[in-house]
From TrEMBL:
It comes from the Eukaryota. GO terms for cellular component: endoplasmic reticulum lumen; endoplasmic reticulum membrane. Its main location: endoplasmic reticulum. Keywords: Calcium, Chaperone, Disulfide bond, Endoplasmic reticulum, Lectin, Metal-binding, Repeat, Signal, Zinc. InterPro entries: Calret/calnex, Calret/calnex_CS, Calreticulin/calnexin_P_dom_sf, ConA-like_dom_sf. This is Calreticulin. Pfam families: Calreticulin. Disulfide bonds join 95-123.
Amino acid sequence: SSCAAFLRAELSRVWEAPPAVLFRQLLAGSGWQRRWARSGYEANPGRFQLTAGRFYGDAARDKGLQTSENAKFCAISSRFKPFSNKGKADHSAYCESFFSSDLDQKNLSGDSHYYIMFGPDICGSETKKVHFKCLKIVLAFFKTQVDRYTHLYTLILRPDQTYKVNIDNEMVASGKLEDDLEFLPLRKINDPTVRKPIDWDDQMQIDDPNDIKPEGWDEPEYVMDTSAGKSEDWDDAVNGEWHYPMNISLSWREWKPRQIDNPNYRGVWPHPQTDNPNYSPDFSIYSYENISIIGLGI
């Protein structure tokens, strides 16, 4: 399969008006190669090229980074002034991963430790989704639109530990990090001291007691192959007494009574919940320290 990526990136931190833009790349000319470090993790990595693509409004102003070779690992990253998003809302746009300042950019790979991964993943005819992961914890995959138009992908993380994902400024997902990602143990768990009542019937369907096996149905599953003969080198003293081999009968069919709705079905038993003793709140799961590198790996 072939994969292609087209990257423009912007990261802003909002805690007052107007917002502070922490990273923005308007790619033009050859200077972009000095600002972006190409990973040499693979022996023969793919390359990015600066292009406006096939469709654009302005050939000079609408340029971005695009993978130039199919079926090759491509990774590139750019460093900016370190910051923390603690107590502030973060807006990230387009397609990227965020790393701490200690990342080895020359060896950026799929195994590199990242803080956040966000953006579209379009590869071949099957993969068409938007990633949102924090510390390799997968939040969700959202279907993305594939057409000839440019689309804007935006992730917003807030200090109240909520998130929002926009595509073309239209919200496609939102929620609470604690609820939607497995950062923390569950607040509530099944009460281990409570057991389902013995008389609770949660089987939706049962065998029809009026459905009787037809006469003559009992064909044996295996039949003796009387056409087989004992081989000349068979020694009963060594190999044991020889018997005709058994083959699966071509006319055998397993019989099962038809299923009907269970008149005593009571539904799924609601296991009572109790506080999880291993749970403790963490009000900092949205925040990261020393955010300093933005990267793209395909």
